[in-house]
Amino acid sequence: MNILVINAGSSSLKYQLYNMKTEDVLAKGRVERIGMDSSILTHEVDHQPEVREVSEILDHTTAIKKVLDMLTHKKFGVLRNIQDIQAVGHRVVHGGETFSRSVLVDQNVKLEIRKLFDLAPLHNPAHMMGIAAVEANLPDVPQAVVFDTAFHQTMPPSSFMYAIPTVLYRKHKIRRYGFHGTSHDYVSKSAAEFLERPLEELKLITCHIGNGASCAAILNGKSFDTSMGMTPLEGLMMGTRSGDLDPAVVPFTINKEELTLNEVNSMLNKHSGLLAISGISSDMREIVESMNEGNEKAKLAFEMYAYRIRKYIGAYIAAMDGVDAIIFTAGVGENSDALRKEVCKGLTFFGVRLEEQRNAVRSSQPRRITTDDSVVSVLVVPTNEELLIARDTYQLVLERPADEAESP
C-alpha cells in the first residue's frame, strides 16, 4: 500500500509518499508560497537530483494537483498513476478533547475539526484546506487525520487542569493539551525497542527540542504530563517563544509599552526565546558558535535554554517517582551535543553519567550517550512523525468495515 502523508500550512504544504510494505519513502517534497504567482515546488527522490519548479499556485487544491503530477511524472515520478495512492494521512495540530486517537476522515470528523479552529487558528484551518484539496483531487481515496494533541489525552486532570475558575474549562475548554504528540509517541516506542523492554513498564522523559520544544513524562506508555499547554507557547524556552512566564507580564507590558494584545502575543511567540536573549539568532547552531567566540548574550541564552529543560526533567522525575530513560529528539535534541551535555551535567544526582565520546557521535539510528553503568539511560532517538502518521493511516484503512472500504 502506498500512503501519501500531508502537512498543510496556510501558505505551504509538505508531503512524503510511503511504501508501507517496506516503510520506505518513495518521494518527498514541499510546496511554498501558495497563493502567489511564484510558488515553488521542491521534489526529492533518493539518488536523483532535486527537482525545483516555479509556477503560479493560487490554492491548496492546485498545490495537491501539482504534487500528484510530480509523483506520476514520466521522468521525475515514482508512480504509474494516481490510483497507486491507496490512502492519505494528514497532520492536524489540535484535536481538543474530541480526539484521543487518529481517525478516518468523514463529515462528522471535519465538522469537529472546524469547531476547534478557535483553539488553533493558525493551524487547523490550514489542515482543513489540505483535506479539502485532497478530496478534490482524490475523491475516492480514504483520508486519515493524526492529531498532535491526541497522545496527551491520557493526562490526568491533576496534570491538564489550570488553577483558574472551572467555568472557563466548562465553557471554553481552557486546559493543558500539549503538542508534538506524534513525536513523543514515536520516540517513546523506539526507545522501548532500543532498550529491549516493554513500553508499558517504563518511565520515560522525552525531550522534543527543535525551534519549538516540549518535554513529556511518559508513564507506562502513556502521556502523564507535558510542558506545552493550551497553546504551544507554554513550557520550555524556545527559538522565538518565551515559554513559561508570570501571566502578569502581559497586562504590565500592555500598560507600560502601550501595546495591543495582538502585539504582545506576537512578541511572546515570534520575538522572544533564544532570539530575544541572544540578540543574534533563534538557531542553536549560531548560538553555540557565538558563545564559543565569547559572546556573553549567546552564553546566557544557551544556559537559560538548557536550565529550563533540566528543570522540567527534574520535575517529571519527581512526578513519576523515578525515570528509566531520558530521550532527546528533533533538530536540536538530535544534533546539539553541547546542549545535551549542558542539560545532563546537572542530572548526576539522579544517576546520569554522560559518556562524552558517545555524545559526540552523530547517527541516524537510536543510540545511548551515557556510560554502561549509568543508573539512568540517556538516549538520542531520531523522530519520524511522518512515518507514525503513515502507520496510523495504514492501520485505520486496514480496520475499515468492508462496506466502507467499498464506498469511501
Automatic annotation (TrEMBL):
<dbReference type="InterPro" id="IPR000890">
    <property type="entry name" value="Aliphatic_acid_kin_short-chain"/>
</dbReference>
<dbReference type="InterPro" id="IPR043129">
    <property type="entry name" value="ATPase_NBD"/>
</dbReference>
<feature type="binding site">
    <location>
        <position position="385"/>
    </location>
    <ligand>
        <name>Mg(2+)</name>
    </ligand>
</feature>
<dbReference type="GO" id="GO:0000287">
    <property type="term" value="F:magnesium ion binding"/>
</dbReference>
<dbReference type="GO" id="GO:0006083">
    <property type="term" value="P:acetate metabolic process"/>
</dbReference>
<feature type="binding site">
    <location>
        <position position="7"/>
    </location>
    <ligand>
        <name>Mg(2+)</name>
    </ligand>
</feature>
<dbReference type="GO" id="GO:0008776">
    <property type="term" value="F:acetate kinase activity"/>
</dbReference>
<feature type="site" description="Transition state stabilizer">
    <location>
        <position position="180"/>
    </location>
</feature>
<comment type="pathway">
    <text>Metabolic intermediate biosynthesis; acetyl-CoA biosynthesis; acetyl-CoA from acetate: step 1/2.</text>
</comment>
<keyword id="KW-0460">Magnesium</keyword>
<feature type="binding site">
    <location>
        <begin position="208"/>
        <end position="212"/>
    </location>
    <ligand>
        <name>ATP</name>
    </ligand>
</feature>
<comment type="subunit">
    <text>Homodimer.</text>
</comment>
<protein>
    <recommendedName>
        <fullName>Acetate kinase</fullName>
        <ecNumber>2.7.2.1</ecNumber>
    </recommendedName>
</protein>
<dbReference type="GO" id="GO:0006085">
    <property type="term" value="P:acetyl-CoA biosynthetic process"/>
</dbReference>
<feature type="site" description="Transition state stabilizer">
    <location>
        <position position="241"/>
    </location>
</feature>
<keyword id="KW-0808">Transferase</keyword>
<dbReference type="InterPro" id="IPR023865">
    <property type="entry name" value="Aliphatic_acid_kinase_CS"/>
</dbReference>
<comment type="similarity">
    <text>Belongs to the acetokinase family.</text>
</comment>
<feature type="binding site">
    <location>
        <position position="14"/>
    </location>
    <ligand>
        <name>ATP</name>
    </ligand>
</feature>
<dbReference type="InterPro" id="IPR004372">
    <property type="entry name" value="Ac/propionate_kinase"/>
</dbReference>
<keyword id="KW-0547">Nucleotide-binding</keyword>
<dbReference type="GO" id="GO:0005524">
    <property type="term" value="F:ATP binding"/>
</dbReference>
<feature type="binding site">
    <location>
        <position position="91"/>
    </location>
    <ligand>
        <name>substrate</name>
    </ligand>
</feature>
<feature type="active site" description="Proton donor/acceptor">
    <location>
        <position position="148"/>
    </location>
</feature>
<feature type="binding site">
    <location>
        <begin position="331"/>
        <end position="335"/>
    </location>
    <ligand>
        <name>ATP</name>
    </ligand>
</feature>
<dbReference type="GO" id="GO:0005737">
    <property type="term" value="C:cytoplasm"/>
</dbReference>
<keyword id="KW-0963">Cytoplasm</keyword>
<dbReference type="Pfam" id="PF00871">
    <property type="entry name" value="Acetate_kinase"/>
</dbReference>
<keyword id="KW-0418">Kinase</keyword>
<feature type="binding site">
    <location>
        <begin position="283"/>
        <end position="285"/>
    </location>
    <ligand>
        <name>ATP</name>
    </ligand>
</feature>
<keyword id="KW-0479">Metal-binding</keyword>
<keyword id="KW-0067">ATP-binding</keyword>
<comment type="function">
    <text>Catalyzes the formation of acetyl phosphate from acetate and ATP. Can also catalyze the reverse reaction.</text>
</comment>
